[in-house]
Amino acid sequence: MSSLKDFFDKYIKEVALHTESTIDIKRTWTKRFKEGCNSMDIEFQDNNEVDWEEVEKIIKNARSEATSNKKRSRTSTTSQTSKSGSWELTEEAKKCFKKEYTKMENENKWLVRTEAGRKVYLEDLMYEYGMNCSYEHCVHSFIFDPTDDCWENTLTKKEIEDILKEGNTDLPSLNQSIHDIFNACKKAILPLEEKEEEEDVEEKEYIKCIWKAVTSLGFFDPDVQPDEDWVQRTLLDYLNMYRRNTLVELVANGSEQDFVIRCWSNLDRCFENLGTVARDRTCRSTLVRINSERKITGLKPIEEQHSSIRPDFLVMKDGLDFAVGECGKDDLGGISKKEITERQLHVPKIMKDILRQTMIKFNHDESLLRTLKIGALNQNSTRIQGAVLDCPKGYICRLIPTSEYTIPQSAAMISVELFKIMKLTLQIKNIVKASIKAVTKYQREQYKKQENPTLITQKSQLADTILQIPQTFTIPNTKKIKTSTSDDIQRK
User: Fold this and answer.
1) Which domain holds residue 50?
2) Could you tell me if residue 57 is inside a domain?
3) Low complexity bias located where (predicted)?
4) In this structure, is residue 55 part of a structural domain?
5) How many structural domains are present in the chain?
6) pLDDT, tens digit, for every residue of 139-187?
7) pTM of the model
8) Are strands 383-390 and 397-406 parallel, antiparallel or unpaired?
9) Which residue from 94, 90, 135 is spatially nearest to 340, judged by alpha carbons?
10) Is the model's pLDDT at 491 over the cut of 90?
């Protein structure tokens, strides 16, 4: 074959795959074909018969089709991986839900009432509700939110209150020294608040009074009083933003990165003395869950590793996660799809992943399970809301959100709203701190029971009572289609 036209007629698809988008097609392929003929000692024929416009069109279409196929091979299994949606449940998904439910034993379930001699368990009610759902809900991960109005027709008001009261549901108290700082600021601005009832007070007066009150306390040693040091530094940083009207500008025109750098990162620093605080980092707890089926079976290749979601806020210590959060710069008053899904489904699932992964590491010891709490801080523009997840009874993880607070745009409202947000952040921190201490204490106790390494046998399990809570629900049918160009995909 010495005709370039014949070559194109037969190998146009291969030509398209080896044609870079930036080259001169006529000049490059004429040169390549001529060099090929010379290397094989074949007479090169003139290429006047080639319709170069048609060749370029065919190559362009072939390249476009190849790119499209490549994208489909990478994303054909990711249609249900976005963290901003509640996905439709397939029959296979409901089978997975049922499989986790059937592992439960009645004697370990959470009894809510007895009707005509029949015991009614919370796990059973959640299963019935979940099987009637068409789209994913927290119930499919056996996460119970007492504030969700879906339970109004299933549970009585008293039953919901009893679930809310089970165990210790109070937010941790703060040191008096923390209250002293806030009280000093409130005392300093009290004359301004009284004056404002009669006449207007400029915001800079509030800023100046709070600054004097905070700085008059002197510096706090971050190694001795990390919380007091954080309160002082955070107040001073926010006062600078009020001086320059930065918050107003952030709300009006700020990007998410602007919010992170100037606003939300102040809350992150509260946790720094506990462990590693990260933003947009893979959550190991979720990564392990979505790849739990990876193993050698001898029947098929090892399943490709799925990449995990990357929360906007994560607190880690010694290889375990303890707190999580998601952020968004837009404020639609709580009605955006992203915010609803993140607060009511996405973040609660990560919180349960964190709790369950900790329990897997420590052999599902029920005594440890009942003491752990996982914290969350969700930030949308200037609105902040916390949440706590625990497992006080049965197989159920209970999710309790906190009240929502707003970072004020006016310095005159610092004591009304900003102080509450800072207190909430410290309370979530104390929850994390308590869980870290519980894990550390448990590890030391287990070391005393068994100082020497052992093989994995039933006798080597040190837990007095083992209770495995159900796995967080994973959307099925997101298996990776393996291709030569495919990357890791995300699963939810």
Assistant:
1) 4-75
2) yes
3) 75-86
4) yes
5) 1
6) 999 999 999 999 999 999 999 999 999 998 999 999 999 999 999 999 9
7) 0.79
8) antiparallel
9) 135
10) no
